[in-house]
Amino acid sequence: MRVIDTVKEMQETADKLRGEKRIGFVPTMGFLHEGHLALVRKARELADVTVASIFVNPIQFGPTEDLAKYPRDLDRDMKLLEQEKTDILFYPPYDEMYPKGYTTYVQVRGLEDYLCGQTRKGHFVGVATVVAKLFNMVKPHIAVFGQKDYQQLTIIERMVKDLNMDVRIIPYPTVREEGGLAMSSRNTYLSSAERQKALLIYASIKRLQELVKTGETDSLLLKEEARRLLASENGVNIEYVSISDPETLEEVDSVKDRAVYAVAVRIGKTRLIDNAMLGGGVT
Amino acid sequence: MRVIDTVKEMQETADKLRGEKRIGFVPTMGFLHEGHLALVRKARELADVTVASIFVNPIQFGPTEDLAKYPRDLDRDMKLLEQEKTDILFYPPYDEMYPKGYTTYVQVRGLEDYLCGQTRKGHFVGVATVVAKLFNMVKPHIAVFGQKDYQQLTIIERMVKDLNMDVRIIPYPTVREEGGLAMSSRNTYLSSAERQKALLIYASIKRLQELVKTGETDSLLLKEEARRLLASENGVNIEYVSISDPETLEEVDSVKDRAVYAVAVRIGKTRLIDNAMLGGGVT
Does a structural domain hold residue B178? Predict the structure, then answer.
């Protein structure tokens, strides 16, 4: 695996490659788990050259969020990426990403305001901006994003379409641990008792999918059921429970066709999110 | 000259070209004049393939501005571009530029607030956004922008640097009519009496450059002199007179090294802007 750690080398390499090969890209913040590796495998399947990036993007963290203690382990990440036959690890330094005087931001207006955007002000501007930057460096034909971060995926898809970025976004299904907990670098913060409580999130997904399958369409009722389930153990603090339009992310009153159930909770000091499609023949 | 009028064809063409040739780009809103043609010639000089685009970008016009009556003459523009041996005219349709649900904007914070940004709210978000889009379509190695729109040029340069767009911005000196009036598509609105008054703008530039050359550094005094000169005929309404830092566009108290004198006036219904460098050995 080749490691590239300057923007200039990445762009020159990408320019040379792009003429002959299809470039597949998986941007990450490192501390890789099976969820990331599944994205890398998908990129490898769809492209000739696979690039993964590791960059803990400061501008998507709020002032009270966990930037400083965000877990990092570059050696381990590199071994895992080697095992997956990643061709290039792009590991840009902070100074090149956000030099002195930095002031440009990409806003996907409206989509930023819902779900996690309610509490994580500026988060999705930070995400859209860094992804725009990385796309300009790696110049991929395809880029794979996990459905676990559903709002992020929706925003990136909208940005790519609106700004005519010449890259195809490939959504990849959420990878889950045994028991259904969605894989996340932040799971590492959970004690084993907390991890047990976190299983309620997946239980709420299965419950809502089941209710919709048996004919329930009333969003309010479905959300109440989710809240009831999540609150059935102490220490699961609900940040939001939402049933929304898959594209606009606006809350819907009823699950007519397809809708996204999205949820954010805090268990101890750890914030966990998850989501799943309801209706539209989802089983 | 090849005319391309879909985003898809432009991107496929650019992708093919980019491997072998250097692409030079001049984005315009049409109604071309000698100022634009000088940019095209510069692009031809620096690149192998020259692309000019014509698109009157609605999102950079305010609700009370002159979008509907902005002058257009595609046939004439095409003839002029042919004469300059332009290789490709890119003429994207509105529906492909801003489809239903469009919601993504590029903000170059801070730089947008000064000079024209004070009265033209949202203008430079519109400019940065459309240029980002056009760059993603045309994929140029270089793009030529006139110094006449100094704030626009500064914002584009900052955006390109911040978002790591792989394109080099080439600034081109303001092209002037006999008497010194900066070329602009909007000059076509001026009556001959108004055109005469408009010469005061260039007179104020020459006067300030002369004062600085002879040792004057006090911005307040220089700006007063500019205002006095511009007001020496009736019907020249000053919108702003500014002496600012060439990169941050912040007002400076004194012209120590280099500073930009920028001016916007209204003559009748026509808004005219101009600028020039003061100090730093400019003659």
Answer: no
- Using an 8 Å CB-CB cutoff, list chain A residues near B107: 104-107
Number of domains in chain B: 2
Tell how many helices (H) and how many strands (E) occur in chain A: 8, 10
In a domain, A281, yes or no: no
| Contact with chain B for residue A7, Cβ under 8 A | yes
- What type of residue sits at position B123? H
φ/ψ (deg, to 5) at B79? -60, -45
Mean pLDDT of successive 10-residue segments in chain B (283 residues)?
Answer: 98 93 97 97 98 96 88 96 98 94 96 89 95 98 97 97 98 96 93 96 98 96 98 95 96 94 96 94 53
Query: What is the domain-level CATH number for residue B107?
Result: 3.40.50.620
B36 is catalytic: yes
pLDDT tens-digit series, residues A163-208: 999 999 999 999 999 999 999 989 999 999 999 999 999 999 999 9
Q: Which residue of B has its CA nearest to A98?
A: B162
- Cβ neighbours of A103 (radius 10 Å): 17
Residue B103 near chain A (CB below 8 Å): yes
Taking CA atoms, what residue in A is nearest to B248?
A101
Please answer yes or no on whether A132 and B163 come within 8 Å at the CB atom.
Answer: yes
> Would you state the torsion angle of the CA atoms of residues A52, A56, A57, A63, taken in this order, to the nearest 10 degrees?
160
Longest dimension (CA), chain B: 57
Q: Is there a single domain that holds both residue A43 and residue A152?
A: yes
Complex-level ipTM beyond the 0.85 threshold: yes
Q: Please state the pTM of the whole predicted model.
A: 0.95
Q: Are A92 and A159 in a shared domain?
A: yes
> CATH number of the domain that A201 lies in?
3.30.1300.10
Query: Is the domain of A160 the same as that of A242?
Result: no
Residue A97 belongs to domain spanning: 2-172
Average pLDDT, chain B: 95
